Amino acid sequence: MPFSQIIGHEQPKKIFQNALAEGRFAHAYLLHGVSGVGKKSLAMALAANLFCPDRTIDACGVCPTCGRVEQNKHPDFFIIEPSGNTIKIEQIREIQKRVQLKPYEGTIKVFLLTDAECMTREATNCLLKMLEEPPSDTVFLLTANNLYSIMPTIISRCQTIPVGKVSLEKIEHLLQNHGLEAEQAKLYASLSDGVPGAALQLAVSGKGQEIRRIAFDLENVILKRDINDLIKKAEEVEKKQELPEIIDQLMLWYRDRLIWSQTGDKQLIVNKDRFEELKALSQDKEKLLEGIECLLEAKNSISQNVNTRLVLEVLLLRLAGMVS
Questions:
Q1: Could you give the residue range(s) of every CATH 1.20.272 domain in the chain?
Q2: What is the pTM of this model?
Q3: Cα separation of 248 and 292, whole Å?
Q4: Rounded to whole angstroms, how far apart are CA atoms 277 and 63?
Q5: In angstroms, rounded to a whole number, what is the distance separating the alpha carbons of residues 224 and 246?
Q6: Which CATH class is domain 206-321?
Q7: What is the pLDDT of residues 68-93, one digit of tens each?
């Protein structure tokens, strides 16, 4: 995959392309950013550029070498991923063996460790020894969702590359290239929070429609203000894996109502397919702002492993209390 096929991430791409142009590489790079943001894609693009025989300013993306990197079939490119929930010492020892060998083709070997925070302590210590005395013909690429979950001694031996979120406009364009209509692309981009992987999963897997259905079921219960129904709905939803995305959809709905109340401009609304429903609702600015704050607080509490059921019950009761 060439860098040109990766949306956004201009700064990481510039760092890698400058290194390629100058022929000067760090022996290890650590790409860190939220899950699904594109860390592995960037690492794969760098590997393709390191191996591609037809590279000019970027990997060609069409030669047999680029194809083998993309398919993880290149003899000098190795991807190490968690086995179960961890990267185990045996996996790193296998790297140790391969590091000592000369490249099968060309002059370089590349090892990509995804989710490096999943390494066991023994695996981390084993990798550290290799990073302390790196072979000149080897490049290590590590990815992590959270930089500070990596042992500081590992971080100190890598060039760290932050991988930030992507603009919603670029994600919309990506989704349209995958066949979504403009309004659908805008909706899923808004739900993705700047994470291309999340947007694609929502759009391609069909989860996006299910998330919306659950979110608007919640909204209907909130509008009815029946305490028993609110408690039952909290119990029903609390164990949903997609709960953060469900809360995001509710925030997007409250945002649409707030924007409509202040501008009256339909073009600024994301949930255009529910526009008539939106117009029929009360649009009290202060209550909508308070509702968004409640949703943000609930999402933050859930991310900190606070009692999810209690957080949801309080959230729904508070939102129902704001309905006029």
A1: 206-321
A2: 0.79
A3: 10
A4: 52
A5: 19
A6: mainly alpha
A7: 999 999 999 999 999 888 999 999 99
